[in-house]
Amino acid sequence: MMNLKFNQEGLIPVIVQDYKTGEIRMFAWANQEALEKTLQTGYAHYYSRSRRSIWKKGETSGELQRVVEIRVDCDEDALLYIVEQEKNIACHTGERNCFFRGIDGEKVKKVLPFETLQRLQEVIKSRIEEKRENSYTYKLYTQGEDRVLQKFGEEAVESLIALKNGEKEPIKAELSDMLYHMLLMLTIKNVDVCEVLEELASRFKG
Amino acid sequence: MMNLKFNQEGLIPVIVQDYKTGEIRMFAWANQEALEKTLQTGYAHYYSRSRRSIWKKGETSGELQRVVEIRVDCDEDALLYIVEQEKNIACHTGERNCFFRGIDGEKVKKVLPFETLQRLQEVIKSRIEEKRENSYTYKLYTQGEDRVLQKFGEEAVESLIALKNGEKEPIKAELSDMLYHMLLMLTIKNVDVCEVLEELASRFKG
Which A residues 163-202 touch B at CB under 8 Å? Predict the structure, then answer.
């Protein structure tokens, strides 16, 4: 283990990032003991400055954080926990993460580029589970997988034509369509897009 | 602006995340003035606890951080700057981000799921710029765009067949191939995969 620099209260800041979406789930603090418990158990532990005690995230709520990896910053005075979030809720307010408002106080609606595929697949899953009648996704889903595959194939061909033509707007539009249908088809086959991206990542050196 | 809680030193922690890749570029601190300068200029400013002064990130190195968005956590005592990083370097060590080591002190090699497409496109760009002879990417690139498009089309069809068959490993393998050739073709056409993901994200409510 590295020679971590804890502050005068014996604490080190912890950034908590989601392994799949990349969103910042929380910001918290750890002391030596919280870090050791995290390493021993594989689940995120922090130090509460208000309660002056160690806490295991999600111990009562079930919103546990399985720690995939811990990284340390260049000065060795900040930690990054990369986690898988149980129940998809990290904030005590019930929000999926603690950074749900902008500096203006308004709730953030924007989905960021890096989280787009994973978050869209979440939406697709929920449309199907809810059987939402007025949803394009649910309607297409009910038409069966051959119809979804046919749409995927059509959009792949349209993407190819747009790429050949080389104009940016059609390229963006057609590839978006193709990726959406890819996500729907992956959902039908119970494959998480994260698993595809893991496979792709394993093939190259960053 | 929200009623932010600065600590007894007048500081608030700032998580700095890349807009495109989602990687955590840095962890730093701001005071009221650093935050105001960030909002006024659109470029990240911080407070250095060692130098006891405001600093503009990249002022001398050129490694500026254009701030796309600022988010605030539920307790209003932590900030998230979402930035575009000039020169793709954020750490004073010359690394692309400050969290380049694991808790064991070893340099991190793993590319995380959410950053995979953007990071792979970076690699593809560099292979082409370097004209790296022993690279599959560079060789395929030199065969011309029709050959790349043909490969993209082949891999899309193979993906379709794998999805129809429904076995996870071929699905992951074929879609990885298709996405790789999509990234190469986007690179040839000077489209950033981030632009495609922005288009896709604009189509759904998260």
Answer: 163-164, 166, 168, 171-173, 175-176, 178-180, 182, 185-186, 189, 191, 194-201
Rg, C-alpha atoms of chain A? 21
Quote the ipTM score.
Answer: 0.96
**Of residues A19, A102, A120, nearest to B204 (C-beta):** A120
Q: Is B4 part of a structural domain of the chain? A: no
pLDDT 10s digit of each residue in chain A, 206 long?
A: 678 999 999 999 999 999 999 999 999 999 999 999 999 999 999 999 999 999 999 999 999 999 999 999 999 999 999 999 999 999 999 999 999 999 999 999 899 999 999 999 999 999 999 999 899 999 999 999 999 999 999 999 999 999 999 999 999 999 999 999 999 999 999 999 999 999 999 997 64
Distances (CA, A) of A16 to A78, A166, B187: 11, 40, 32
Give, for A29, the enclosing helix (H) or strand (E): strand A24-30
Asked whether residue B135 falls in the same domain as residue B54, the answer is: no
The answer to whether the Cβ–Cβ distance between B103 and A26 falls below 8 Å is: no
Q: Which of these three, A55, A88, A121, is where a domain ends?
A: A88
Residue A166 belongs to domain with CATH number: 1.10.287.1080
Read out DSSP for B122-147? Answer: HHHHHHHHHT-TT-HHHHHHHT-HHH
DSSP-derived secondary structure letter, A55: E
Range of the domain at B137: 113-202
**Tokens standing for residue B171:** 């699905």
Q: Count structural domains, chain B.
A: 2
Q: Does B42 touch chain A (CB under 8 A)?
A: no
Question: How do residues B67-83 score in pLDDT, each as one tens digit?
Answer: 999 999 999 999 999 99
Chain B partners within 8 Å of A203 (Cβ): 176, 180
CATH code, A79: 3.10.20.810
Residues A117 and A181 in one domain: yes
